[in-house]
Amino acid sequence: MRPRVRASFGITGNDLDLDAITESLGVAPTSTRLKEDFPEVSQRMGLAADTWGYTIPRAECASVSERIGALEAVFGDKAGQISAVRERYAANVSVGLSLHAVIGDEPDLTLTRGDLAFLGSMGAELGIDPYLYYPDEGDLPPVGEGA
After folding, report:
1. What ranges in 12-130 are assigned the alpha helix state H?
2. 93 in Cβ contact with 122 (< 8 Å)
3. Residue 114 lies in domain
4. How many Cβ atoms sit within 10 Å of the Cβ of residue 20?
5. Could you give the number of structural domains in the chain?
6. Nearest 10 degrees: Cα torsion 112, 10, 91, 93
7. Which pTM does this prediction carry?
8. Could you tell me the end-to-end alpha-carbon distance of the chain, in angstroms, rounded to an integer?
9. Under 8 Å CB-to-CB from 77, ≥6 apart: which residues?
10. 139 located within any domain
11. Do the Cβ atoms of 68 and 7 come closer than 8 Å?
12. Residue 9 domain-assigned (yes or no)
């Protein structure tokens, strides 16, 4: 069974103007959340932040570079706008990969020079969340919209 990876792009910070970010990027987010919408305990602990997010649905792949490429197809020509948003709001930019694979059939985790240049052009941090399954554990999570 081929590995499955979901790719997410996020901008987080305090006092973000989420509508202005959407207008600047020319991309509709798949999710947004204001820090006041987080549970009160998260706010008190300093874990809450305004969030603008875009997620590419989970898909089968042989390499994480394929999924970063899917994000680059959306945001590759927007590095200037993303940098401006990052500077204007003192925001953090991140890319996250949620990886599901059967042990022994993991995807290639190599980041190409192009992947690194894309992430660097946006000043993005990269996080990878691996979820590994034993071969006899059954099916991996679904792919496609909503996955």
Report:
1. 18-25, 40-44, 64-75, 79-89, 113-122
2. yes
3. 4-133
4. 13
5. 1
6. -10
7. 0.90
8. 17
9. none
10. no
11. yes
12. yes
Residue burial 108-128, b: 16+ Cβ < 10 Å; e: rest: eeebeeebeebbebbebeeee
* Interaxial angle between packed helices 79-89 and 18-25, expressed in degrees from 0 to 180 and rounded to the nearest 10: 160
41 in a structural domain: yes
The reported pLDDT for the residue numbered 64 is 95
- Which residue, chain included where needed, has tokens 């089968």? 60
Structural domain contains residue 147: no
59's tokens: 């898909």
Q: Return the closest-CA partner of residue 131 out of 98, 96, 105.
A: 98
Which of the 8 DSSP states describes residue 104? T
Taking only the tens of pLDDT, the chain with its 147 residues reads 789 999 999 999 999 999 999 999 999 999 999 999 988 998 889 888 999 999 999 999 999 999 999 999 999 999 999 999 999 999 999 999 999 999 999 999 999 999 999 999 999 999 999 999 988 877 788 887 666
Record the tokens describing residue 37, joined without a space.
């919408």
